[in-house]
Specification:
Distance between the termini: 40 Å
Number of strands: 11
Radius of gyration: 14 Å
Number of helices: 0
Shape: globular
Amino acid sequence: QVQLVESGGGLVQPGGSLRLSCAASGSIFRLFTIAWYRQAPGKQRELVATITSRDTTDYADSAKGRFTISKDYAKNTVYLQMDSLKPEDTAVYYCNAVWPANSEHNYWGQGTQVTVSS
């Protein structure tokens, strides 16, 4: 069983920055793909960014050029650096870990609220 704990959310003004953290309960990064999703009120959950076990990254069009996903293997933590934030980035952000070799191993964190408002 993998546990994921997100942190770093909060209230920020448009144009500001936040760094979200996703701490994993074990050394899973060499096997699992880690992703950040978000869900705004009344909307479906959407994929924001992914980083594979080989450190390949990918981003939703809405995140490209503004968000950066990265890993710290020593801390078993994945980060989502979010810059140039917009009100439409307001959502609950969730961390997800999935083992591509066996998708039954699919874990979610509890989420962290990000609010972009003046």
